[in-house]
Automatic annotation (TrEMBL):
Residues 6-89 form the EfeO-type cupredoxin-like domain. Pfam families: Cupredoxin_1. It comes from Lentilactobacillus farraginis DSM 18382 = JCM 14108. SUPFAM superfamilies: Cupredoxins. It comes from the Bacteria. This is Copper-exporting ATPase.
Amino acid sequence: MTDKKQSIMVIVDGGYHPDAVELIKGIPAEITFKRISEKGCVDTIVLPELGIKRFLPINEQQTFSINTDKAGEYQFHCGMDMAYGKVVIK
Ligand SMILES: [Cu+2]
């Protein structure tokens, strides 16, 4: 099972769908954000604890590798800190 990879897609449409992503600890993971509309102010994704801040061009996928060595909850939010989601590693 150690060669498995977890891949999750979050659709950004004024908010995050899903807004809670669960990952299994110890298995390499990547999260892909895809913004599909101009709605809201979610054109930038920020995962502060993971050192990620990236502009999300419309209809383009942005994929980030997530280190799952440590269990915990990591919040992500828009560039203005108004829309929220979280990554839960357990
Ligand atoms: Cu915002």
